[in-house]
Fold each of these.
Amino acid sequence: MMLRIPALLSPDEVRQCRQALEQASWQDGRATAGPLAAQVKANLQLPLDSQTGQAIGDLILDRLGASALFMSAALPLKVLPPRFNRYEGGGTYGNHIDNAIFTIPGTAIKVRSDISTTVFFSDPEEYEGGELVVEDTFGHQSVKLPAGDAIVYPGTSLHRVNPVTRGTRYASFFWTHSLVASDEKRRILFDLDQQIQQLSVRHPGDPSLSALSGTYHNLLRMWSQA
Ligand code: NI
């Protein structure tokens, strides 16, 4: 499932983050790529111990926790600290699938990359190219969202970032280990949850609400691993 989270960050927050990102010191993105990925990766990244990255990462995690849409879609168990990239001058990241397991830096904690998220820090008109292209069962999805928006997509999908031929594209990306590993099952839980929310607005107090909510939690109990 691909899902857009509109305005995860406010325009003010985006402005402040952008200022900090423009002043940060960037390194070659191949530093964190395996040999296969390094052949198709040409971008810049913030070092994992960058203070700017850590501060903006904390802000992102804060906003994710407050996003009912993200929580419902991702059912997060663990979220890796957000990373940051910068594409310009033809910079690109060709087709690849992300590593399955990451370790949280400075710890022994393993995170399975069930879900990928990208948060945009540049507006679409600021750069040419740079679409995030995700291949899923319905074909290609090409994504280029306003600054402050996020896109959530399955970690299992083949994806790329098209070459940025004008301007600069700043973004954050990170992985979530979900309570529910299967994208298909998460989708069913998400749809059910959304319908329960809508029903509770249209027909507050409807007796079917507690039964449906019970079904949701029973499915979550059956499908989740913690
Ligand atoms: Ni990737």
Amino acid sequence: MSQVPAAQAPAENPWENALEQFQTVAERLGLDAGMRDVLSHCEREFTVNFPVHMDDGSIRVFTGHRVHHNEARGPLKGGLRYSLGVTLDEVKALAMWMTWKCAVAGLPYGGAKGGVVVDPRALSERELERLTRRFTAEIGILIGPDEDIPAPDMGTDARVMAWIMDTYSMMHGHTAPAVVTGKPVTVGGSSGRLEATGRGVLFVTQEACRERGMALEGATVAVQGFGNVGSVAAKLLDDAGAKVVAASDSGGGIYRGDGLGDIDELLARKREAGCLPDVHPGDHITNEELLELPVDILVPAAIEGQIHGGNAGRVRAKLIVEGANGPTTPEADRILQEKGVYVVPDILANAGGVIVSYFEWVQDLQSFFWEEAEVNQRLERIIKRAFAEVTAEHQRHDGTTLREAAYMLAVGRVVEATRVRGIFP
Ligand code: NAD
């Protein structure tokens, strides 16, 4: 079995960054010590080590995590990541960010996340299915339509969600489509879910351009990460008149000042060849160089910690729209703020995925499915409302970043729910 190179591990600890972001806002909101303590812990951290039969007859043990950060606002919701870079601290950070993201979008969910330490490209389809089904059984005591509803994240997709749904259904003796979102449409998935995160990135980019007095038409764009989020965002931004000049994946990046051309065609060729630098005659660049290109808009859509204290000073984009979770460290945030770069934070910018996941869950619970146009219209309404609420909060508080404004709104909502519910017993 060929081992594909690991995605580069983030240089900083995402959990420490998530805590620092929270503490900054807790200070601004004047939260008391008890509430800070509640919100700076994850409610449950579950680690499993489980065996899987490989195709060659051997047995391998894999490690996975499922973490619940806070369920004050409703059942827990969060993606499942397959990557060699997965750590418990990464999953905890991603779970906390989910709590704030659901709150900022006004969804009735708390934040969760899961991950398995594995390179999915190094497994056969049958091995991936066995791993997914066994992991589902291992975390079976945590998940359920009313408890914790996983969804795709890096390294997982609709096919993985279908296996989770089927395994959970077999364990419970009835089909339970609402246990996961991001499923294929044939088994209860929602129209528009596959493109939802990238479509949300488009909507917030439109709003951010309007807010900053920038034209999206003709604006140059660089996209780091060309998976679900990055490729759909690139395609929709291109369709909206922007010029995508650079893109990258874990194999490296490509750059053409006059534009990368047809994004669908690029994606099709990437699928055949495996990684972007192998399919494009344009100038090859590294992922680090992509972040420092002289573009109008930068969309980091890969992993955490990519824009940090060491390179933020060299970022030349005017607008950063965070398709990925946690791509900018707190130190980089301070540098970007000084430089006047407008950063639309992850908990707002990539909320399109969980918004349409919420629609999928509602449709599954009602067994009543919507047309794609209706899904996209509702997504646009909710994410633009969230953007307006965050910018209003930003204007009310001088000297804050847009991230701090989004956090103030989100943390305030979670605090309110915690107070109203009270502490059991
Ligand atoms: P994906 O697996 O579909 O794609 C990830 C892409 O990032 C791939 O092109 C991969 O090659 C690239 N990549 C990995 N490591 C890299 C590195 N070190 N440098 C450059 N590129 C690298 O994953 P996705 O679902 O598109 O998720 C991307 C990001 O968006 C993650 O941070 C994820 O948490 C976040 N996100 C995803 C969703 C969703 O609905 N899928 C929703 C919200 C946020």
Amino acid sequence: MRSLPYFCRGEVVRGFGRGSRELGIRTANFPDSVVDNLPGDITTGIYYGWACVGHGDVHKMVMSIGWNPYYKNTKKSMETHIIHTFKEDFYGEILSIVIVGYIRAEKSFDSLDSLITAICNDISEAKEKLDLPEYQCMKDDNFFRSHENSIMNGH
Ligand code: ADP
Ligand code: MG
């Protein structure tokens, strides 16, 4: 995908609340303005990269971009699960991310258990890939430290 790595940031907005209720895996949602800016070659699917809330530390993340077929959604979404335990929710804060790689296409699952298993595998793959030197260096990108343009999308 030519557009990777893709840097963007935006406010964390409320989703459908299903991340924690049904899956036990919380996902921070971006507003439509960020979703609508995605380059065309970043197709729906599961991705990995780095994420930072406000001026906090940079953590590994997995992200789902898509229509969420399991829920028969009609809306496109960008949902980031940050691989870190936060003390509090961070709705309204600015989430900065860089998407560095692609894991798999979105697919439907015949049970919630198989969906959860797939997400756990995605998280393991993301953790492993992000330890590679070519991805480690992106964690230290100046993008995560310079917030002059508080909202920006692109490279
Ligand atoms: P919603 O449908 O509103 O997105 P979720 O159940 O998916 O609800 O929870 C997402 C919210 O949980 C995020 O907006 C954030 O405030 C909080 N949160 C806490 N820990 C995490 C995490 N590790 N990754 C993503 N979001 C988290
Ligand atoms: Mg969510």
